[in-house]
Amino acid sequence: MLKQQNKQQAEVIHDLDKNNYGGECETLRLENKELKKKLKIYEEKFELARISLGKNSSNSLKPSSTNGFKKVVQNNRVKSGRKPGREKGHVRSAPTVTKTPDKTITVSKVATCTCGCKTIEKEEIARDLISLEVIVHTTQYVGKKTKCPCCGKEHMPKFPNSVNSIVNYDEGIKALVVYLNTYCNIQNQKTAELLGLISDNKIKMCQGTVCHDHNKIHLSFPQSKQAECNFHILRYCKAEYEVHKREIIKEFMDYLLELRDKVEEYKLQEKTCFTDIEYETAKAKYLELLDILDEEFKKEYDKEKEQYYDSERCLKSRLREYVDDHLRFLTDFRIEFTNNLAERGLRKIKTKLKIAGEFRNLKFAKYYCDAISIIDSSLFF
């Protein structure tokens, strides 16, 4: 019995040595370890994709155009069968002559008909000729600059809030420029030339500044200075801080807000911009914070998780490349820290699209934009 058991054990040992089960087990362990690593990477990618699919314009920075197709509003109106256009018998609307003309000129009548007979008067016919006369009215504010004999502090005269620079333009001219530039799509340089032409070169506007959210289409207009919206940058930085938890990002955000508060403080002191030394100091601190962010980024960067760091890499590259555009509001206090004013102008159109849906054709969209432009422009007068 013992010999038989010993023989069976010998066969088992021979079989194990022959098939090398021990080496195969070690190979399977290594393969299992590699598969676990790949599974972890795919799980992270799946989690990022799941989060991205759940984002829309209400809970992220994505535009509303990416929300997908909206439910089409059904038209329940019954066709009348009538032809389009003015109905028969409807009073035609046409322009009428004014009852209070500025100037009246009497023209001669036709006294003799072509047949040779004398004509008789029947009724008076009036026609209007409307002309445009541009009158440039300049109001100059003059005041005395004073100085304290004790501390030597100088005080500027108390000019109105709308007169904060050497040459200023009233709200009517500003409204006209906004209308020509935004609605009529006329470039800033041509707008300035048009105002100079109709005012006999009495209105000479300087180079304009466009504040936008990194819309590169504005870079094709070199006659305008570019200013980046910093509120959008703060939102992007906040999103990266919530993901990577870098304190240097929070410090960068605080520094931008500190510069904004300093600008507001200087405005109360009737200053118009940072000095060259102050601007260079602010720019150096701005770039220093970005250098620290680069160092922390390189330490943590993992090439296998490149997608995880892609948005942060693009953000810090944008901040460094367009540093002068992000700090443009320091060189001229008339430039806003954000482009929220432009976005508020588009809010009415976006609200209309959400409530009533898209326009049927381009003609109706133009009618709506005409009405909105007139309402917005009239608010400036």
Describe, in plain words, how this protein is organized in 3D:
- The chain has 381 residues and is mainly alpha-helical.
- The protein has a domain at 159-378.
- Helix content is 51%, strand content 3%.
- The chain is built from 12 helices and 4 strands, in the order ααββααββαααααααα.
- The protein has helices at residues 2-19, 21-53, 171-183, 188-198, 230-244, 247-268, 276-300, 306-321, 323-326, 328-331, 340-356, 362-378, and strands at residues 146-147, 154-155, 209-212, 225-228.
- The strands form 2 sheets. The protein has a two-stranded antiparallel ribbon with strand order 1-2. A two-stranded parallel sheet has the order 3-4.
- A hairpin with a 6-residue loop joins β1 (146-147) and β2.
- α3 (171-183) runs antiparallel to α12 (362-378) and α6 (247-268) runs antiparallel to α7 (276-300).
- The protein is flat, with a radius of gyration of 37 Å.
- The model has no long low-confidence stretch (mean pLDDT 80).
Summary, kept brief:
By secondary structure, the chain is mainly alpha-helical. It is built from 12 helices and 4 strands, in the order H-H-E-E-H-H-E-E-H-H-H-H-H-H-H-H.
As a whole number of angstroms, the C-alpha radius of gyration is 37 Å
Average pLDDT taken over every residue: 80
Give the number of helices: 12
- Number-wise, the strands total 4
SSE series: HHEEHHEEHHHHHHHH
Q: How far apart are the first and last residues' alpha carbons, in Å?
A: 116 Å
Largest sheet: 2 strands, antiparallel
* Helix residue percentage: 40-55%
pLDDT < 50 runs, ≥5 residues: none
In terms of structural class, how would the helical and strand content be classed?
Answer: mainly alpha
Strand order of the largest sheet: 1-2
What does the overall shape look like? flat
